[in-house]
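My current task is to audit a protein record that another person submitted. What it holds is a sequence and that sequence's fold in token form. Thanks in advance; the entry in question is below.
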Amino acid sequence: MQPVNLRSFQQKVNLNKKAFKRYLGKVEKNPPKTLYKTMAALDKEVWQEVDCLSCANCCKKMTPTFTEKDVARAAKHLQMTPDDFKQKWLQYSKKEDEWTNVKQPCQFLDLKTNKCDIYAVRPADCSGFPHFTKKQPVLYLHVHQQNIQYCPATYKMVEKMMEIVEVK
């Protein structure tokens, strides 16, 4: 497994982002019956090629949404009240009806090691990221369209899908 070179990754994204998004849009409109099995198999391949700890771009460029359960779990871990946790670390969007980080990179990312300081109690959005093996993968294809520009694993997944999953 090679460390992620973010400069090289960004160059590839700039070259292929439109084609990848167009491809995912076509898969979303006409998903093959074997999409879940295919993505589950490719998931194993992708993680043999991508080292998240050499990247952490998701934590640097994106923010998870925090459910009330996530807030309670993280607050308890940090020995805070949920309200204090929200006030210190999160912002609420009425439009989206969600809690997200106040800043980027994520305040819980150790920039020296690319490790999460609250990994054991991280939000469900983080623990499920990049959402490859969801039982209904078609519901996440629009998420992958967004994530290809941030996540080398998502980019690699779509690249592999384009090689074997034909779209009409």
About this structure: Residues 6-59+129-164 form one domain. The longest strand covers residues 90-93. The two ends are 33 Å apart (CA to CA).
